[in-house]
Specification:
Length: 373
Amino acid sequence: MKRILLLITCAAVMVACQTKKPSYKVTGIISGADDSVQFVLQKRVSGQIVTLDSAMLLKGKFEMKGGAIEFPEMVTLLARDLRKGVSFYLENAEITISGHIDSLSKAVITGSKTQDEYKSLQESLGKLNSEYSELYAKYRKASEDGNKEEAAGLEKQMDEVENRMTEVQKDFIKNNPSSFVAPSVLRSISYYLEADEIESYINAMDTTVRKIQMVKDLETRVEAMKKVAVGQKASDFTLNSPDDKPISLWSKVGQSKLLLVDFWASWCGPCRQENPNVVKVWTEFNKKGFDVFGVSLDRPDAKDKWVQAIKDDKLTWTHVSDLKYWDCEAAKLYAVNAIPANFLLDENGVIIARNLRGDNLYNKVKEILGSTK
């Protein structure tokens, strides 16, 4: 009996020794490129590009091998010096990338379960993306032609498509709690969600998925959002005006019945498109008690562009910035990760609405202050 037990134990040890350690292998089969092309595998970490591996193409093929990936993550395969690449989810698996060098972004990727989940989501959004692109092209033309009525109608249609896209993404998160794609999807739509809704999606995710840094960042964001949710008193901050004078938010609270804290930047296209709407509301309701406190997320070397944008867009209210781009202290305090973003405060500094744009801003201000006519 002891001999049998010993044999069983030895066999178990041998099996354990033969078990492969988790690792990844990326095989590229790329046509249309010569052997001088080097491929690099990169990922973004804290805003910086990190190279994971590299390989030279040999007879239309390359291989990259690496140690265990803790969690599936989005990476980019780049053909160095050719400015061509494709992004995909890397995980502990044998992954094959097949395609032509001239259309590398459309390469076929197999072997990654997470990539398959991501592809399925993109296919679900495909028709809506196309619909949105067509509407946007018409919207731009109408805007360029000065056809405001048509542009406004198209903008509403675009908003409807965006809402449908968001619903598809929400369904994906709900139906795929164990997918490592879900946190990325949640992060992308978190701008449109309230803190408790984001938190509910996080709580429904599998324990392993909740361990990744992206989810931890979302949890931190939720806590920040709770502090600036509707019904909360607005947190104070102080930044410099264009003429370098420090101005605090609370120095403006109470001077008007409503104060819009408006996060924007000169480089932000959607912000510049929204500015005329804010100007319209300010012009019509300023004398009845509406004012704006503009907070710019412009870059450190772009003060001139910030000042010029204020002038060009006729933004005749108070403006401040620390010119730190996305490191703006006020933006972090208010959990702003996309612009335009805004918070509407009453005369006591209580947040009564957030992220009001276009007609929604106009109607909310009119509801509170009444018609100017």
